[in-house]
Amino acid sequence: MNKQKVIAIIFVIVIITCTVFIFSMIFFSPAQRAKGIIDDFYQYEQEGMFAKSWDLFHSEMKRKFDKSDYLQDRPHVFMNHFGVTTFSFVLSDVDKLSNWKVEKDAKPLTTVYKVAVTQTYKGKYGNFQLTQEVFATKEEGDWKVLWNYNK
């Protein structure tokens, strides 16, 4: 094999490696992973799979209400009272926060990502939107969802 072919092969390998690296940095960055878990959470909620959405909660959230209460209350309030069967939702861009707390007396979380979630409901009381800031962080290696309880 001559020198030009070797250089060409090395050049192609370098280009492919750089492309894979850039692709992974864009699509698998912590901010995108955080946004992805929030998207998963609301897709489960949208499909009425509240047990699966509850499983994505951070332990701080699971201390707020147990699973059986959540499975009863969440669909009752949002579906039965509003007279809707489902909703659509959109997510904002991601903001990175440091030392954020779920509530005043909670332990600060080192790195948290914030996304505004806007849910659109169309029901017997008309059409309306609900916007909530939702947070995601890693807990024991897995991405988890939190809501803000600061007053």
CATH architecture title: Roll
Oligomer: single chain
Distance between the termini: 70 Å
* Radius of gyration, CA atoms, in whole angstroms: 21 Å
Largest sheet: 5 strands, antiparallel
Q: Low-confidence parts lasting 5 or more residues at pLDDT below 50?
A: none
Structure description:
46% of the residues lie in helices and 30% in strands. The longest helix has 25 residues, at 3-27. By secondary structure, the protein is α+β, with helices and mostly antiparallel strands.
Could you give a short description of this structure?
The chain is built from 5 helices and 5 strands. It is α+β, with helices and mostly antiparallel strands and 151 residues long.
List the helices and strands and how they pair.
Blueprint: H1 3-27, H2 30-46, H3 50-55, H4 59-64, H5 67-81, E1 87-91, E2 95-100, E3 109-123, E4 126-139, E5 142-147
Antiparallel strand pairs: 1-3, 2-3, 3-4, 4-5
Looking at this protein, list some descriptive labels.
alpha+beta; five-stranded antiparallel sheet; 5 strands
